[in-house]
Amino acid sequence: MIKLKAVHEILGIPSTHRILELLAIWGELTVDEIIGKTKLSRNQIYNVLKMLIENGFVEKVNRGKYKLAGNPRTKYLAMFYRENIVMQIGSYFQSIIEGREKADPEKLTEIIEKYEPILKEHFKWIMHSLVEMNLID
Amino acid sequence: MIEYWYTDELHKLFNKARNLVENFLKIKLPEVKVYISIEEYLVEILTDIYVKKGYTKKKAQKMAVKQAKFIRGLYIRKKKTIFLKEDVGENLQTLVHELLHVVQKCDKSPIRKEKIVIFLTYLILKDRFEHDYLTRKIVEEWQRKISNKSAEIVKRRLLQEGDCNNI
What ipTM is given for this predicted complex? Predict the structure, then answer.
């Protein structure tokens, strides 16, 4: 039985969404990998993961990794996070393409660190150009 | 470890891409070498470029490792050489794109240089051009830009100095 109050509580924490988003993108992650991608503290991450497991959003898998639970609610949530990220990245890249934003190799690197699987799936050709244009003399 | 190499298959691909570009632009391409390279070699190249741009070695290396995952090919003007990344770069779309950079004279901004090359690669390959969401936007933008004019002006724009956008 899902306790709605607990669900509302956990979904009200901003770091919950960062962790859920990362798991939706990367599939399985260790706590160390989540730290590397979010800069959240180990303690914060463990607390959030504990609540997410208790409420059926996340499952612990082997080798200290965590993944999103396989229930329909979480599948839809994962789809939402992934689509939202595609929109955000698309909008940022479009602003570069239209010349409204300057391409920054450091920012591009940060985006790759966080969203590599999404970039490989949805932006593989434009990513080639975005990397290449930073290298032009 | 061998970092880059040449194969019979690459020879065929290069001839095909060169013919497509030369027939389309009605020019003869200058001499250019093409190799297939491992990602690690591209990381080295990218690191050197970023160090020369003023980044620390550590930062340059970090950016290079991440970005090399996405680069498919790279034309190094000083070496007159194109490196195609093993597997992902060994295709017509990547090689035609890089060959257009070889003869590109228009400039103004890196993104404008890329956009005109993407559009011309599309015109050369047509149905064989593989899109992603944003390359489609670029092609549509350029189609609007030339509207009922001939593609010849885009070809000329690539081959002449000045703003790549100015047609």
Answer: 0.93
